Amino acid sequence: MGDDSEWLKLSVDQKCEHKLWKARLSGYEEALKIFQKIKDEKSPEWSKYLGLIKKFVTDSNAVVQLKGLEAALVFVENAHVAGKTTGEVVSGVVSKVFNQPKAKAKELGTEICLMYIEIEKGEAVQEELLKGLDSKNPKITVACIETLRKALSEFGSKIILLKPIIKVLPKLFESREKAIRDEAKLIAVEIYRWIRDALKAPLQNINPVQLKELEEEWCRLPPGAPRPTRFLRSQQELEAKLEQQQSAGGDAEGGGDDGDEAPQIDAYELLEAVEILSKLPKDFYDKIEAKKWQERKEALEAVEILVKNPKLEAGDYSDLVKALKKVVGKDTNVMLVALAAKCLTGLAVGLRKKFGQYAGHVVPTILEKFKEKKPQVVQALQEAIDAIFLTTTLQSISEDILAVMDNKNPTIKQQTSLFIARSFRHCTSSTLPKSLLKPFCAALLKHINDSAPEVRDAAFEALGTALKVVGEKAVNPFLVDVDKLKLDRIKECSEKVELVYGKKSGATVEKRESKALPGKTVASGAAGDKDVKDAVAPKSGPMKKAPAAKASGPPKKGKPAASGATGGAGSKNKKGSDVKEIVEPELSVEVCEEKASAVLPPTCLQLLDSGNWKERLACMEEFQKAVELMDRTEMPCQALVRMLAKKPGWKETNFQVMQMKLHIVALVAQKGHFSKTSAQVVLDGLVDKIGDVKCGNNAKEALTSIAEACLLPWTAEQVMSMAFSQKNPKNQSETLNWLSNAIKEFGFSGLNVKAFISNVKTALAATNPAVRTSAITLLGVMYLYVGPSLRMFFEDEKTALLSQIDAEFEKMQGQTPPAPTRGTTKNTGGGADEGEDGDDPEEGGSDVVDLLPRVEISDKITVELVSKIGDKNWKIRKEGLDEVTSIINEAKFIQPNIGELAAALKGRLNDSNKILVQQTLSILQQLAVAMGPNIRQHVRNLGIPIITVLGDSKNNVRAAALATVNAWAEQTGMKEWLEGEDLSEELRKENPFLRQELLGWLAEKLPALRSAPTDLILCVPHLYSCLEDRNGDVRKKAQDALPFFMMHLGYEKMAKATGKLKPTSKDQVLAMLEKAKANMPAKPAAPSKSSSKPAGGAGAAKFQPVSAPVEDSMASSGESKPDPKKARGGGVSSKAKGVQGKKMPSKTSLKEEDDKSGPIFIVVPNGKEQRMKDEKALKVLKWNFTTPRDEYIEQLKLQMSSCVARWLQDEMFHSDFQHHNKALAVMVDHLESEKEGVISCLDLILKWLTLRFFDTNTSVLMKALEYLKLLFTLLSDEEYHLTENEASSFIPYLILKVGEPKDVIRKDVRAILNRMCLVYPASKMFPFIMEGTKSKNSKQRAECLEELGCLVESYGMNVCQPTPGKALKEMAIHIGDRDNTVRNAALNTIVTVYNVHGDQVFKLIGNLSEKDMSMLEERIKRSAKRPAAAPIKQVEERPQRTQNLNSNANMLRKGPAEDMSSRLNQARSLSGHSEAPHTVPREFQLDLDEIENDNGTVRCEMPALVQHKLDDIFEPVLIPEPKIRAVSPHFDDMHSNTASTINFIISQVASGDINTSVQALAQIDEVLRQEDKSEAMSGHIDQFLIATFMQLRLIYNTHMADEKLDKDEIIKLYSCIIGNMISLFQIENLAREASTGVLKDLMHGLITLMLDSRIEDLEEGQQVFRSVNLLVVKVLEKSDQTNILSALLVLLQDSLLATAGSPKFSELVMKCLWRMVRLLPDTINSINLDRILLDIHIFMKVFPKEKLKQCKSEFPIRTLKTLLHTLCKLKGPKILDHLTMIDNKNESELEAHLCRMMKHSLDQMGSKSDKETEKGASRIDEKSSKAKVNDFLAEIFKKIGSKENTKEGLAELYEYKKKYSDADIEPFLKNSSQFFQSYVERGLRVIEMEREGKGRIPSSTGISPQMEVSCVPPPTSTVSSVGNTNGEEVGPSVYLERLKILRQRCGLENSKQDDRPALTLLSKPSGPAVVSSTDMLHSKLSQIRESREQHQHLDLDSNQMHSVATSSSSSSTAANIDDLKKRLERIKSSRK
Fold first, then answer.
1. Which of 1100, 1156, 1224, 1326 has the least CB density, counted as fewest CB within 10 Å?
2. Residue 1245: its pLDDT value, please?
């Protein structure tokens, strides 16, 4: 029993999972209480139970399950996270609760389901419940139906999707189980409550008895619309509001409103589509052509039966429609006509929008067939055409209808008008725009005057309907000339009309509206109407009128000028009655005189024809005064102008009188009601005077005034015809000039392009050049408005003239038409019209359609031509297509009627001959331009097939198809393409090419749309399948398009659409949706009035000849200028500048010179960041290509438009290279002055320069490289850091140029790469250059390899990315390259690495072929014989490269933050970690400024003991205060998984900030101390150890040397590090993970720490040493024994190789090895002997016995022998089997040594080895044999030839020559170069001088960088004394002698040379230090001349921090010597 109660102690969640039911019951009860107590829905407590809730509901024990259900219900109701459990819990409820016998359980289960629905998880619940309907257990099925019914009843049909339920209802009614049938009946009744009769059709096929019962039940239902009683959480407020309404008694009002809340379900949507094409009789197409009418009837009856199906499946019905159309059009039997019409009706009803593509073919035929009189036929045709109308838009069939309106047959006219009337009823004010209304009204107005009464009545009805739909205001302008009777008749008809959308009579609504909207202006804005319409459309009732009311607006008071005008109607129609055109009859001269005398002084009239000009002048002055004082209403304009024309009239000879006369004409026109009749009187005279020198301007002024009064189009037409009817060229040219200006002032609205063009052509043919010039100028102005299509009219002109026209057009390109300044109040639209314009995207092109003369080509599309195009022989097909091309070319602009051509071309789109497909595509492209916006009616039948071609496998065909689709979309806008299912059907096809092209196209087009049709949702399921497509490109394109779909459909709809996906797919897609949600762009805003009107004048938006709709013309939303190629006359002003409104025109009209004065780069705040975000979010193309395509160039242009001066951009993207040179010259000039701008546009500048790399012109390339050099110099001065984005889009393309054949270019590119290292980490440059080595261009490979060598030489091995091993293997591949240069480069690079890294290189390279390896070894040997001077060119580069490290460490401007792992890599690259310590050549130079400014102390650093390359980075002088990056508080959110968290913490261990590092170490220590958590560190050990020894280096180099730092902080950091390590190395399995390289570095760090004398001086120093000792022991014992032994051997080898190393260091390493030897008996079996013996082999290879004997100490050789001895002892002869890893055993003495040991007794071996050890000496004995001498000399020369040991080699050679003066070194020198020989001789002389204390000798020859002698004691000598307090361990006397001399020169005492404090010289400034620094200055002066351009390369340890005096890299080398002397004097005096 005791065991049973154990569970009582468990926690609640553990109880809930217990196997005992009692425990679970208790757990559920407690959980329930906890759930009820938690008040916060977001409490973390809820998350504990996430995984348990399913168990709550599926418990096997019924009693416990009940309690679990209660708890689960409370959880779902209150927990914020409950939604995550929906699927599993509801599934559990369905399977385990609904089958329970207890009603309570079922009830709770149902409640849980409903609660999930309430928390917005309705879809998931419904999905699970629908699955439950398939259960074999009827109980479950019944419960699922019941739950669905309850859900529908409570939440309503908006939340519960009815379609899937209705789909399964018939199946439920067929069930054997009565309970299921009954429940099905109940749910059917519930569904009927919500959707009424829409349910009837889907249930027609159930059992008649059941149907009858159902219908009875349905009849009993109350009539009112149901209302939901329960609401989603998000709708809770609505619920509260409803309750308030009810309590306030506002039920009636609210009820009406909410009744409509239920969505109107379309029965059609609930039906299953039926496929009928396959069911057509096989002989149908034969029978339909049969001669016997009975057979034709049979065929039609078969079709009629099929089309009765209410919903038909989409397919290719073109043949069937063609057949039916033929019957309707040509069959003589009227019965069959009616039958065919019925079939068409059935098709249209069943296919709905999918039938739209065939509508254009059928409508003209049906309309013409209305000539039939029989009512039966007429009715069938009416039904057919009405059904067809619903499948398309009025816009797309308008041309066909208008064409029939002119038919002579009155019946056709009558029926067409009636059809128009019926069609109008389906329209709203937005779907019946002015552009459409205008032609219809014009045609109907003819009909109301028809002789046939039935035609008149029908026309009245149609006009009345239009009036009702759009309101009087919109229709009145077209009814100006209609008399009152007819107008009343139209209004009467209007009142009778009942609209489909249920409007009440216009008048009453208007009244009500005017009350409802007092004072509201009409100008509702472009989007306003549309929004209102969308919001109101679904509702019925009074609200219906809102859109129309907005359009018509409340009646205005007074002010006729403000009344709106129909912009779409063109400016010929004036505004309603207010601005009615003034029509007056022509008056006789007498009447005129009478009228004039009434208003003019009598003298005035008498003197008009006086002979004295002065009197005439006086008369004119009086005339003018009188006119000025006259009232507008009283002014008799015609009379006045006739008086002026009275003799002498326009023949006036005195220019003053004439000027006055012309001025009076202008005044009269401005001030009076000036009619066209009056204008006719004066125009002739004005045109006659327009060319007059003195009077011309007055004549132009008068003409302008008349144009304002009588409208420009009319005036211009009159003036032009008059000017060209006379022969005066001056008048002609001035008329043209006036017109050019007038168009700019008035805008282009209503001008007759056709008439102008003929006049302009006449002018162009004129002999007078002035006339031609004026004509070309006029064309330029017209081009602004009409666009590129204008040129088509002049293609026949002579080439010279055409080139002038083109030049004029080019000038105008990109300019925006100026805002009209005249005629606007009277003639352009008011606010309301703007609103309507905005609503109607098609409006854009309507006027241009009217303006451009279009040719009817249908008569040329003959049957022969169509049959040619469809011929079997491809050549004939081609002929046919060629003919079509020539027809279109000839016609230029065509009417939309192209007969059978559309079908013929469609057939060619899937031609087997791809050339013909391409030709067809180019024809279709032509067709789009030629037909203009009317092409939209062909989108269905021709446009969609073009999209199908996007699936072609050939690239060029796809490209042609895409170009064609774009050309079409430009004309039609996107609406036509997105409506209907066609596009989704295309996307459904599983063709990867089609999918990726189509998605790419949509991704490009959707962002520019302001709104998209709802049909876009149909594409979403296919989009989701594309996201999981097998093809990667398809997936990528789908991901790119995702945010743009979401932009139009919203996240909710998109997420909802995932409901049908498989669970795995759903999760993936939802994750992608979340991602896309973050990147979703905002919809482009509607163009604001302030920008659209002024910018485009009376219709800038309208005058785009190829007139994209407004939405499309906004596509360039980011541009600040329209793209010249696409601008088509400017179009709608872009949004970027739209805000500026009226300022725009003035901006564009600035002269170029003025433009150039401003900055060339404009700083856009966060512009660069935004561009990077866009690129990251894939909103724009990633800059990645092999050759730049147009879309990249266009994108760059677009991006530059906002931040680069316009004129410069034109230069940059000009087709002529000379303009590029100009642009580069300007950029160079502005580089210094516009630093900020350059940096803010840097990404764009670099991208543009990459484009220049692809130019073939060398001068541009040279200029670009020159600019880049200056640019990167500037960037490094500014301490800018290149962002990843900038680097990746530039460096790869720069590297391409490194392979150029021209040396100059290669040299420049290398120089740029060098400079780039100052602004971008070398370690990140490395992979780019490595990628360059894979090029096919051998020059590029070679140069890249050389550059890699330079990088390694300058920055050490850690630049090699991803790892040195991988990088070296890649490089080594090129040793076997075909090209000799590449081979050499590869060998040189690896030799460079070898010089830095030693023999480790062979390990890293891996296996090479014998040939390659021998070449490499040979090269290494050869390099050892040469002085390892860096190539001369690198002398310049080195200081820059070194400086780079500082600039990286001290980045003032950093790019966007990179992730933590990349920061760690950067930290690694900065701290110079590599797998073996190496010596970095360094230069010492004095920073005199620093010393001068110093007040008496020189800060110096101590010389280091170990080699690293940290010296540059951690210099206290250069490093700024470290910026502490605290751990983000949202750390857990950022890094959800443990691994990334640990990575982040580890990266902080190496932080330069002590606190950050301590915190990180504390976190790791906590993990390590907990057994259960320490496993998390597995896999991160190496990473952690690397970070730790980086931190050790940092302390050693920086923190210890920083006097500001409190040393207690450092001790604290040390104790944290050591504590952590001890914890780590106590956990054996973790300790063993440490790799050899890392252990080597760790031991290096720890031993260096043990030798740090500075710690000894600290209070707790001894404690630190003890801890380190303990740690070292732990590391030796617990690490993987093979790894640690190997690491120690490599470390010993490196420490012995390093001349600067301390003997003490090597000694400690050997002590560690001895400890390992002692452990060997226990560990021998766990050691990989093969690896250890390989390491010993390498050691012995590097240190043969002779060399070891030369060591200063005998310990190394003894250690090695002891180790081998122990191994032999433990393994015996078997040890010889472990030499498997050694390739060439002869390279070392290891094998021989082991064999000897096996032969002799161990004792003998021991004594022998002892003797050998005793014999070991550091110099060759006099008794050495000659062979040994040669070996020794070879060794010395090898040292001299290596960079690190050159000085030691020279010193040894000097000693050797001193001892053996007769020794012959000639043989060694003879094979070397002259340079090397002179170097050796010089070096020996320098040493001789030094030894004798004579200082340096001046040099006249250039010397290698290694030659300079240090003026600081080299570490070789200083360090050798470390720790030797008694001096016994010091080497031969010669070293002591050198040390003394060097110490003297640095001002040090020699008395205490061996004391350890000598080491603290650099860290603790004291008296001598000052002396030494001034001495060093003296020394520096003596060197200046000699080392102008050189740099010293000393064997410095890389841990050493050089003093302030050495911080300048190269700046002071060329300083003036006198200046240095003066500064030195100043320093000396300041020290005193």
1. 1156
2. 92
DSSP 798-863: -HHHHHHHHHHHHHHTTPPPPPP-SSHHHHS--HHHHHHHHH-TTHHHHHHHHHS--B--GGGS-H
Kindly tell me the sign of the dihedral angle through the C-alpha atoms of 26, 29, 32, 34.
negative
Residue linked to tokens 């004391």: 1955
Residues 6+ apart with CB under 8 A from 840: 430, 433, 434, 435, 568, 1110
Report which DSSP code applies to 894: B
CB atoms within 10 A of CB 1477: 27
pLDDT for 361 = 85
Quote the CA–CA distance of 503 and 549 in Å, as a whole number. Answer: 11
pLDDT at position 1714 is: 84
CA 1937 to chain centre: 69
pTM: 0.37
Q: What is the CA 1030 to chain-centroid distance, rounded?
A: 24
Q: According to the model, what pLDDT value does residue 339 have?
A: 92
Give residue-wise pLDDT tens across range 360-369.
Answer: 888 999 998 8
Predicted local confidence at residue 523, as pLDDT = 37
Cβ atoms of 1539 and 1545 within 8 Å: the answer is no
Q: Give the residues across from 274 on adjacent strands.
A: 312
The predicted structure's pLDDT at residue 721: 83
> Which residues, at least 6 apart from 1870, have a Cβ–Cβ distance to it below 8 Å?
none
Contacts of 1794 by beta carbon, 8 Å cutoff, 6+ apart? 1764, 1768, 1775, 1776
C-alpha–C-alpha distance, residues 116 and 121, integer Å: 5
* pLDDT of amino acid 561: 37
Residues of the chain under the 50 pLDDT cut = 1-2, 250-262, 503-580, 825-849, 1088-1154, 1427-1486, 1488, 1490, 1492, 1494-1504, 1513, 1515-1536, 1801-1824, 1894-1931, 1949-1982, 1984-2015
CA separation for the pair 1040, 980 (Å, rounded): 23
Cis previous bond, 1327, omega within 30: no
Q: Which two tokens stand for residue 1186?
A: 């092999």
Instruction: Give the pLDDT confidence score for residue 1595 in this predicted structure.
Output: 82
1372 vs 1376: CA distance, rounded Å: 8
Residues 6 or more apart whose CB falls under 8 angstroms from that of 1774 comprise none
The residues near 1002 (Cβ < 8 Å, ≥ 6 apart) are: 1019, 1041, 1044, 1045
CA neighbours closer than 13 Å in the CB half-sphere of residue 1095: 30
**Residue whose pair of structure tokens reads 């009145």 in the numeric block:** 476
Residue 791: how many CA atoms within 13 Å on its side-chain side? 20
**Please, are residues 1076 and 1122 in contact by the beta-carbon 8 Å criterion?**
no
**Both tokens of residue 596?**
């004039």
**Rounded distance, CA 616 to CA 736, Å?**
31
855 beta partners:
894
Please state, in angstroms and rounded to a whole number, the distance separating the CA atoms of residues 762 and 903. Answer: 41
- Rounded Cα distance between 281 and 286, Å, is 10
Q: Find out whether 1848 and 1995 touch, Cβ atoms under 8 Å.
A: yes
Q: Provide the pLDDT for residue 824.
A: 55
Q: 1280 has which bridge partners?
A: 1453
C-alpha span between 1597 and 1603 (Å, rounded)? 12
User: Which residues lie closer than 8 Å to 1986 by C-beta, 6 or more apart?
Assistant: 1896, 1898, 1899, 1903, 1908
What does DSSP assign to residue 1084? P
pLDDT at 2001: 38
Place of tokens 């973390």: 44
Residue from 1696, 1799, 1779 nearest 1736 by CA: 1779
3-state secondary structure 977-1001: HHCCCHHHHHHHCCCHHHHHHHHHH
